[in-house]
Amino acid sequence: MSEIFATTGTIAAIATAVVPQQGSVSIVRVSGSQAMAIAQSLFHAPGKQVWESHRILYGYIRHPQTRELVDESLLLIMKAPRSYTREDVVEFHCHGGIIAVQQVLQLCLEQGARLAQPGEFTLRAFLNGRLDLTQAESIADLVGAKSPQAAQTALAGLQGKLAHPIRQLRSNCLDILAEIEARIDFEEDLPPLDDNAIISGIENIAAEITQLLATKDKGELLRTGLKVAIVGRPNVGKSSLLNAWSRSDRAIVTDLPGTTRDVVESQLVVGGIPVQVLDTAGIRETADQVEKIGVERSRRAASAADLVLFTIDAAVGWTEGDQEIYEQVQHRPLILVINKIDLVNKAESKLLQSKIPNLDSQILTAASQNQGIDDLETAILEVVQQGKVQAADMDLAINQRQAAALTKAKISLEQVQATITQQLPLDFWTIDLRGAIQALGEITGEEVTESVLDRIFSRFCIGK
User: Is the pLDDT assigned to residue 395 strictly greater than 90?
Assistant: First the structure.
């Protein structure tokens, strides 16, 4: 059995980030049958404070043998089943930093708790019926959210907005299966099966599954972010564009071509979508070995990007070098950024735009003057809305595991339809229908294997 399934006993872990000289509070969480006993052995609450569920006690943590003072803290008590794990849970709210919280955790372990595995608190919440599997995964998404929109989508999943339609689809499949199996067992006592009604029901379920599958790309976009590469010839203003956009001096800017030798990264949020912006070295032929490595990395970054911001110099115009770069990146979703428009007049700018090859989106910027950044963000969101980089306005989004299970369910339903069309016996109809029911159950955890749970919860942080 997987190590993560050793869910017996009392577990403890630090539930907050441990950073030297950062954070005012650190929390040690303990869950299990011995949680209260461990708290009573370590925590001294002066006065007549009542040790009862959902109270916060003030006091001191002391070594149980030496009575040496370890920390001044608060103790939060949550008795089963009114806790995150539906077990007895206590939390020591210690001072921040790294020393006090580590000492408290060590004392909990010495008193009989064991160190929790990654995600084990949430795993216990799932196994004890506190959460279903979609809600557990939403918790991980919420902790790792990179934008407000990603957090809202995770909260929607935590509130059951994904689990509810999945359960309804599974229930509909079970209803159809019951109709079919009733005809198998009691054929003489029931009216003939309405094949058209069965087919219609299956089609409706498959259509709803297709709608859910359409949210996968948005889910990936919210979880991992949009990777955007700024590419172009040397000295066209790529680094100035990054600095103006990120409102920082992440990239070195000079009048010398080839200043950027490596990929410079910045994290932004555009329209609720996390964006990883990569400022790349100017792409050109060079004998400089260091610059050559930077150019090669730029090409790789462009080929791996979800969106390319192809930047050219308005004062220089479209050159052979621009054409060569365009031919390398034109297969990617692309926005043309005509930079340094402050150095040319409007007539020259319009003439340049008319000479550029077929492009769906192009904007004018003067990065050194912080001009055109709003237009750039608008153009990026338009590319997303056009479906070139998937993101829809919806309040739920499935992940890869859920998409795989939905795809399996959809294929099984298509097999049922084929079986009906071929007029095979009713027993054959039930085989793939059960497959669809099982696949849908895997999403919420009603049908799940140890390996699936292991894969899901091993990605959680320790303490959650």
Answer: no
